[in-house]
Structures are given as C-alpha cells and as structure tokens.
Amino acid sequence: MWSYVGAKAHPRWLWWGEDRASGHILAYVFGRRTHATFPALRRVPARAGRAVCHWFTDAWWAYVDELPAHQRTESKAGLQALERKHLTVRTRIKRLTRKTICCSQKLFFHEGVSALFIHHFFFLAPQYY
After folding, report:
1. The pTM is what?
2. For 34-59, what is each residue's pLDDT tens digit?
C-alpha cells in the first residue's frame, strides 16, 4: 500500500505480511518499494521467532529477486484479505486516502500515525476486522 509525504514525488510504502490461516498481521514496515525494504519485512517475524515458509505476492521484482520460486506464489487471490485491510486503513486514516487535500508534511508524523493505528486496530483490538 502506498501513500506520500509532502508531495506525490515522495511515495512511502507500507509493507506487511499476514498469517494466511488466521488473517492476523505478523509484521509491517514502512519504506520505499525497493530491494532494501523487503528484507527488512522478512527480518521482523524472524526476530519474533516465527518462520515464514511461503509468501503470496504480486509480480514485483523485489519479491522475484529475493525469494526462491518454491517460497513464492504470485496470486491476486492470495492477496484479497490483505487488500481488504488496505481499504480499512485508508478509510480510517484520511491522510492515506489517495485523492485528498490532507497529507502528512513530515515523515515522522506520517509513519507515526499509521503505525499507531495499525498497532491499535490490528494488534490490540483484532476482533474488529
């Protein structure tokens, strides 16, 4: 999921992974959509002692280059639940809506507000989704 800080020339991506069986968010990171950000996402569950065996992804080159073919499935069907979570976050946080006059001017506030919402909504009150 992407949004921007200050201007559309400064995109920020929210990368996250969910447990396919339960639908719970396992990890999330903010960054650009590059080879550097995806390994950061992969390290978060590993630090928590959780192993991710298989990834459902789109055809982005960072996934293709970083994951072996047997650990990755390119599928829109596997991403539908995650896309629904994107819609929930965009609906609840105005600054993430694509066509709005409300945007974050500072990266600290942009990522802070998003992280607080994600933490509260998906980790503290998981019964709402």
Report:
1. 0.70
2. 888 888 988 988 888 888 888 888 88
Domain count, the chain: 1
Secondary structure letter of residue 95 according to DSSP: G
For residue 24 the two structure tokens come to: 């719970």
- Give the strand order in the sheet containing 7-18: 2-5, 7-18, 25-31
Q: E strand or H helix at 50, and its extent? A: none
Look at residues 46, 17, 47 and name the one whose alpha carbon lies nearest to residue 29: 17
Scanning the structure block, which residue is given the tokens 């201007």?
Answer: 7
pLDDT tens per residue across span 55-85: 888 888 888 888 898 998 887 777 787 788 8
Q: What residue numbers bound the domain in which 38 lies? A: 2-128
Tokens of 48: 């928590």
